[in-house]
Amino acid sequence: MVAKEGVKDLIPVQVAVRVRPLSDKENRENAVPCLRVVIGKDRAFTYDFIFPADKSQESLYQQCVIPLLDSCLEGYNSTILAYGQTGSGKTYTMGTNGSKQASTENLGIIPRVIRSYKTYVSFLELYNEEIRDMLNPSSDKPLSIREDNLGVFVNNLSELEVTSGRDMEEALVRGSLSRTVGSTQMNTESSRSHAIFTLILQRADAQDPSNTVTSRLHFVDLAGSERLSRTKAEGARMKEGISINGGLLALGNVISALGMVTKKKMHIPYRDSKLTRILQDSLGGNSRTLMIACCSPSDTNLEETLNTLKYADRARQIKNKPILNVD
Ligand code: ADP
Hints:
microtubule binding, transport, disordered N terminus, Kinesin-like protein, binds adenosine-5'-diphosphate
């Protein structure tokens, strides 16, 4: 258990870089690991955590996720984002692959959290700026983003009450399986959508038990960040690529604006995409975010890895300033 921090001491965004092992395909192509952490040079990046390829799911969970859960249980909204090119390990890290077979050692973040807490869950997919309810994909109720005095929420999205770890795991597996998957030249299994699995934690206020405190913990498996040209996307796939990148671009801009927030009010462009709008209450202000930048170790992916590291570097600049002008 980490020491409890006061709001002013919260680190709003922490960034972890995670490198997966070389894949079979990369080994067949004689790819060479090229990722090194350079310290003490002008252009070197620094991150809060680095997980080389031999680091386990458990070590990432212990070091980055448990401290975030502690503050979430105290009432701070939190977000865990997996960012990186297709095939870099986002789904593996987050645990949204829908595989019931995963060995305990390979379990990703969400199933690990599920085994520890009781709560409600929702699961949505953002595909071409369209929201889909992954726990009720055949629902014909319109899903729209709304805001009330408790914050931003998706109207009509199913929130499933779960009373056991098994219930939650079933919701995760069911939702993961209904996720839209498109094939690209880069990776036929690659997901072209953003998936947001949310735990809604409700508990009685210790001072006033009749009052409930609700906090949300979002787990976001972002769509692949690779460039359109690399995936040779065409037609409908090109349209997907444009809106996927639109969401990632908007997220980058929000992150960048949060990094520049000073004492004076500043416009944060949350409304530029549904992704940033849905995550609005959990990015900046008094919330906490963990971004996991997933990287291939291979020299053949060097350019994309550099893009990922730059994006993650920008995220790390976010300062926690409570005076935000939410548009
Ligand atoms: P993404 O979601 O970024 O497209 P995946 O999570 O599907 O990528 O990972 C691609 C492949 O690499 C999968 O077969 C996955 O099991 C494997 N993989 C990813 N990260 C790791 C890791 N840290 N250790 C072992 N295997 C990994």
